[in-house]
Amino acid sequence: MRTSTIIEDDPVQAELLKALLEQHNISADVVHDFDGACKAIKEGLTSDLVILDYDLGASEGDGVDLCKRIESTTDIPVLVLTGAKNKEIAVEFMNAGARQFVSKPYNVKELLARINKLISRKPTLFDGSHTDADSPPVLDFNLMKASYRGVTIAMSAKQLELFEILLSNEGETVFRDDINFLLNQNAENSRYADTLITKLRRRLAKFPGEIRIRSIRGVGYQLSRSV
Questions:
Q1: Would the N or C end of the chain have less CB density within 10 A of its end CB?
Q2: In the chain, what are the domains?
């Protein structure tokens, strides 16, 4: 059975989520506060997934702080499940290493799909074999450019933001709605991500090797690189 850790200060929400997961053969340990989460991280998390809220009612820190700690000490994927609607918070979580961001109230089928996707992936451990040739692209938001394998390409701010989102989830599907959300686009502009993807593909074609953005029909996009 797969395992999860739920970090949620609302006991009712936590127990509902735990019951949902256990109905789908995912065991769940619940941590209700920031201090308890810090202790669990320090002692060593061993679950297959962490489901994390943003506001844990603590002055010492929040979900973003915990996400950074989890990312720096484990290879456990983090799914953020929160009622926070602020797009800046979503970006903070993505920069902290979160793999998925889901807003409350959530659609059960969508949440389970995202959870199953994360816990079924095989983590790739860094073994020291990487070379300059397969190092990831470097994005410069000040000079509005991206560099890869000795080639530098000018990009717009939105192209760089999109590239960063896809790179931080390399090899994984990024939902179209998530892209629109993180790029501060409203639901009515549903084709925004598709249009920007087309423009970004043209820019990436100028790099040596192959950086491919694959369309996942009806869902989103997935970035991969040849090395």
A1: N
A2: 2-120 (3.40.50.2300), 132-225 (1.10.10.10)
